[in-house]
Amino acid sequence: MKPYQVDDQLVNAAKQQALKRFPEGWSGAAAMYTETGRILTSVYVDALNAAACLCHETGAICEAHRLNERICASVCVSKEETVEPFVILTPCGICQERLAYWGLDVEVGVPDKADPTQYHSLKLREVQPYYWRQIYSENKE
């Protein structure tokens, strides 16, 4: 299996999906590599009740489960206005839990502290160094 991490191809796939779905104003999407090199994309699901909304990553995570493919890398992008550049968003805690299903070596995009339009690819274990499941032996490095 080729190790996948967040790269320009994955970031661009997320941006393209965001612009296709939300061409004007606010925009955002997620893109993920599976173990076969497939790129899955998805967008935010809005709902009248805010508790029922779903993060950008959720659709691609569900699709990976449907395909029975392991997610290796994930990135989420967002922008507030049409003319603004996309920024990279670290997965929220719920999406980190969803991605951890495939292990703590899943790579995720995180924003560069000096320029959030740029990214770094980190393993979930690096994003969440005190992750609760690491106390169990099968999840230790």
TrEMBL record:
Gene3D superfamilies: Cytidine Deaminase, domain 2 (3.40.140.10). Its EC number is 3.5.4.5. The keyword Cytoplasm does not apply. Keywords: Hydrolase. It comes from the Bacteria. The keyword Hydrolase applies. GO terms for molecular function: cytidine deaminase activity. InterPro entries: Cytidine_deaminase-like. This is Cytidine deaminase. It comes from Leptolyngbya subtilissima DQ-A4.
